[in-house]
Amino acid sequence: MQRSNRRVRFGRWFLFIWALAVLALMLVGVLGKEPEPRYDGATFVRVEAGRCYV
């Protein structure tokens, strides 16, 4: 009886830690997005010319 109780406790802790890890990854994905780069007119001219060295 004691062994199965140990397995149940381990399973619950494992699921709890796994759920926390998934939530942390989701938060990092949402909050860690980089802002869109700002381009000036010269950048677009270079891109249209086919030579983009940005």
Task: Summarize the biggest pleated sheet.
Answer: none
SS field, number of helical segments: 2
Percent of residues in β-strands: under 5%
The count of β-strands is 0
Task: Tell me roughly what share of residues is in helical segments.
Answer: over 70%
Global geometry: rod-shaped
Rg for CA atoms = 25 Å
End-to-end CA span: 66 Å
Average pLDDT figure: 78
Q: Could you say which structural class the secondary elements and strand pairing correspond to?
A: mainly alpha
Order of helices and strands: HH
Q: Which residues sit in consecutive blocks of at least 5 with pLDDT less than 50? A: none
Protein model, in words:
The chain is built from 2 helices and no strands. It is mainly α and 54 residues long. The model has no long low-confidence stretch (mean pLDDT 78).
In a few lines, what is going on in this structure?
The chain is mainly α and 54 residues long. 72% of the residues lie in helices and 0% in strands. The longest helix has 30 residues, at 2-31.
Please specify the SSE layout and strand pairing.
Layout: H1 2-31, H2 41-49
Fill in the keyword field for this structure:
single chain; 54 residues; mainly alpha; 72% helix
